[in-house]
């Protein structure tokens, strides 16, 4: 076994030997602070980049949400009912639900959506006001003409703006 005598026997009360340059503790603390600040800045930049990517993804899917909601509304043209008929509850409820979904998807586009979809949003808002939150069959029957009329107006508006759903 070989022992390194110089290492085990060395003791000094003045720190490292004369061949090691002296570095003030404040310099070490400053270097550590800079490292921490850089790490925090890097983490913040990464979070900002991820948030921006999330916003881009959300913006790119919003037109798809409007298209999907509009397709659901158009599908109600396959159904219908005569006033008072047994299938009216389903049909009118579905038209109401599809209009609500389209309204929500248009509003989800933020200020741009509110400006662009101003007319259909106003029509759907008037319908919501008339229904007063009551989606019962009796209330939907009572507002049948406005419900179907709103669907038809929104459909005509969307047909005139094909860039919104194709």
Task: Offer a concise description of the structure.
71% of the residues lie in helices and 0% in strands. The chain is mainly alpha-helical and 166 residues long.
User: Count of DSSP helices?
Assistant: 7
- Share of helix, binned: over 70%
Oligomer: single chain
Tell me the total number of β-strands.
0
Global geometry: rod-shaped
For the termini, the CA-CA separation is 83 Å
- Rg of Cα set: 34 Å
- Main sheet attributes: strand count, strand direction, barrel closure: none
Q: Stretches where pLDDT falls below 50 for ≥5 residues?
A: none
**Structural class of the helices, strands and pairings?**
mainly alpha
Along the chain, the helix and strand elements come as: HHHHHHH
> What is the arithmetic mean of pLDDT?
81
Please report which band the strand proportion falls in: under 5%, 5-15%, 15-25%, 25-35%, 35-45% or over 45%.
under 5%
Show the helix and strand layout:
Elements (H helix, E strand, L loop, with lengths): L4 H4 L16 H51 L12 H20 L2 H7 L1 H14 L5 H6 L1 H16 L7
Helix pairs in contact: 2-3, 3-5, 3-7, 5-7
Report on this model:
By secondary structure, the chain is mainly alpha-helical. Helices cover 71% and strands 0% of the residues. Helix 2 packs antiparallel against helix 3 (88-107), helix 3 packs across helix 7 and helix 5 (118-131) runs antiparallel to helix 7 (144-159). The termini are far apart.
Name the features.
0% strand; 166 residues; single chain; mainly alpha; 7 helices
């Amino acid at each position: 076994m070989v022992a390194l005598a110089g290492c085990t026997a060395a003791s000094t009360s003045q720190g490292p030997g004369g061949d090691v340059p002296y570095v003030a503790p404040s310099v070490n603390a400053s270097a550590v602070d800079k490292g921490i600040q850089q790490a925090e800045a890097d983490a913040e930049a990464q979070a900002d980049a991820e948030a921006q990517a999330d916003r881009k993804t959300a913006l790119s899917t919003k037109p798809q949400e409007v298209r999907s909601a509009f397709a659901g509304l158009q599908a109600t043209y396959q159904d219908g009912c005569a006033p008072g008929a047994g299938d009216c509850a389903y049909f009118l409820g579905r038209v109401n639900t599809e209009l609500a979904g389209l309204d929500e998807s248009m509003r989800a586009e933020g200020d741009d959506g509110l400006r662009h979809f101003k007319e259909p949003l106003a029509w759907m808002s008037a319908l919501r006001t008339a229904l007063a939150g009551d989606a019962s069959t009796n209330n939907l029957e009572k507002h049948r003409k406005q419900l179907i009329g709103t669907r038809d107006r929104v459909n005509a508006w969307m047909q005139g703006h094909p860039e919104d759903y194709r």
